[in-house]
Amino acid sequence: MLIKAAIIRAIIPFLIMTGISLLMRYQEIDATQVRSTFFVGLIVTVVAAATVIYDIEGWSLLQKSVVHFIVMLLTVFPLLLLSGMFQLNGFLDYLKVFGLFLAVGAVAWTVSYLFIRKFG
Fold first, then answer.
1. How far apart are CA 76 and CA 94, in angstroms?
2. pTM for this predicted structure
3. Cα dihedral angle (20, 14, 35, 19), rounded to 10 degrees?
4. What is the pLDDT of residues 4-37, one digit of tens each?
5. Cα gap 18→24, rounded to integer Å
6. Which pLDDT tens digit goes with each residue over 34-82?
7. Which of 19, 45, 47, 103 could form a disulfide with 14 if both were Cys (CB 3.0 to 4.6 A apart)?
8. Distance CA 44, CA 58 (A)
9. d(CA 48, CA 6)
10. H or E stretch including 97?
11. Cα angle: 13, vertex 16, 18; to 5 degrees
């Protein structure tokens, strides 16, 4: 059931962002922008699908958060590296992207947690 929910949550952003990417390509917009838009779509798709982790009953928030982080590390982080949105000339560049990945993830997790606590 979780897999079905993940697919349903993922399909909408995937279709929208792929459609936008195709429109951009058709309009002959810069290939770098088209590629970045498509990769953002892939990232949003993965993040949306992974939200089902938080629906698993019987798991603590810590367990859910650790599994979610691992899924993001194995999917979103490589997508960021492959996206072409970052200049990657050496180890320090990869480290900067990893730091950005951690910072955005921490902010997103905290905002989501506070929102759900207040309104969920």
1. 14
2. 0.91
3. -20
4. 999 999 999 999 999 999 999 999 999 999 999 9
5. 10
6. 999 999 999 999 999 999 999 999 999 999 999 999 999 999 999 999 9
7. 45
8. 26
9. 7
10. helix 91-119
11. 100
Task: Pull the structure tokens for residue 7.
Answer: 């697919």
Q: For residue 120, is pLDDT > 80?
A: no
Give CA–CA dist 13/111, Å, rounded: 21
Angle at 54 between CA 80 and CA 43, to 5 degrees: 15
Question: How far is residue 120's CA from residue 114's CA, in Å, rounded to a whole number?
Answer: 9
Handedness of CA 62, 64, 70, 73 (dihedral sign): negative
Using the structure block, give the residue that is written with the tokens 């905290």: 110
Both tokens of residue 59?
């798991």
The two three-digit tokens of residue 83, written as one number:
């996206």
Q: Match 């200049």 to its residue by tokens.
A: 87
3 is written with which tokens? 């897999």
CA–CA separation, 34 vs 18, rounded Å? 10
